[in-house]
Amino acid sequence: MVYHSSFIDNIEISKACGCPLLPLKSHIKGPAPVSEQDSTDIVDEAITFFRANVFFRNFDIKSSADKLLIYLTFYINIALKRLEGCRTLAEGTKAIINLGLEKVPVPGELGFPFPGLFSVPQSQQEAELFRNYLKQIREETSGRLLSVAYRSNGTPNKWWLAFAKRKFMNVITQ
After folding, report:
1. How many CA atoms lie within 13 A of 160 on its CB side?
2. Do 72 and 24 touch, CB atoms closer than 8 A?
3. How many CA atoms lie within 13 A of 62 on its CB side?
C-alpha cells in the first residue's frame, strides 16, 4: 500500500500547474508560504515515506498533494544517486549544491520527468511561479536529505544510500 500525503485539497491553498503550493518549514526564499516549525510539511512526508514508496511502480493519486509527493520521491531518488559515490558529508554537500544549480524544468518542457502528472502552465507567470516553487522545495529537500543520508560523524548512512539503486515508478534517472 502506497503512503499518501496527509495534505488534502484545500481551496485556500494556491496552485500552479495543478500542484498545490504547500507551506514549507523553510528559510530559503521562494513562493512557498511559511509553515510552523513544529508541524509536518510535504518535505517531511516525502523523506519519511521515501523508503516505502520507492518500491511501488504505480501510485494511485488521492489528492493533488500526492502529485507533489511523487515529484519529491523522484527528486530524492535522483539526489541519492548523486550522493552514492560521495564518501563524506562535505563531498555530499558539494554534489547536492551542484544538483540544486541545475535548471528546473516545468511541465511541457523537455526534461520534466512526469508528463501528464501536472498540467501545462497557462502563462509564463504560472510557469515561473511553479519553477521557483520546485526550486525552493528541491533545495529544502536536499538540505534535509543530507541530515538523514549522512551520520553525525559525516560518514554515509548505508541504510539510506542503498535506495539509490531503486527505480521509482520505473522512471530512469540521470
Report:
1. 24
2. no
3. 8
